[in-house]
Amino acid sequence: MSIRIALVDEKKYESLLTASALGNIGFEVSDLVNNWQEVSAAIKENAPDVLMICLDSNAIHAVVMAEKARALYPELGLVFLTSTPDLRLVGIAEKELPHGVQVILKSSVTDLHILTDAIHRSMDDLKSHPKTRWVNGTTFTDESAFTTVLHTLTQVQIETLRLVALGSSNAEIARIRLVTEKAVEHTITRILYALKIATNPRHNARVLLSREYYRCVGVSREI
User: Fold this and answer.
1) Is residue 144 predicted with pLDDT exceeding 50?
2) φ/ψ bin of 193: left (φ > 0), alpha (ψ from -120 to 50), beta (otherwise)
3) pTM to 2 decimal places
4) With contact defined as beta carbons under 8 Å apart, do 97 and 103 qualify?
5) Other CB atoms closer than 10 Å to residue 77's CB: what's the count?
């Protein structure tokens, strides 16, 4: 009996491509959905074995959706697809992920057999290996699989980077963090240094940081 997968992705074209690839390697995509109401209906009506969710559109909402789905069906395997190697960039702490979830960095998986293994592990790990597994190419690892410069940034620096990319001014960031604007300026300077981004009078530091943020989360955006 083939494994039934409910695929959650707001990007219809990409979800169709993923569904086609899954079908070609022997899985049954029972549902293509993009919101909680549809996910809930799919679980109740079609009882999928695995919920596969793209995190890139609204990662926090996606994690909440996964937790609610697990509450309906505790045996549900979970696979997350993402473009970013550090989920803090999209507002998620790894410890907040549901247990046994498989996190696949899209750019690292070129072999569909890796996707197959992740789907099977998402069900097997519910009891035998409750921690998060990242899929890094052909390697499954615990916790964060990718040692990049992003992991040298503190939580405050990551959050500041996110706020800059989202268009918040230094004054707005200072109010959110309950610090002075000077402290925000110092944090931005440290981020630039950590990411090895050189600045000069002709380039706005905030624009450079925003470009780096959207590059890291795998979003094409003209700034």
Assistant:
1) no
2) alpha
3) 0.74
4) yes
5) 25
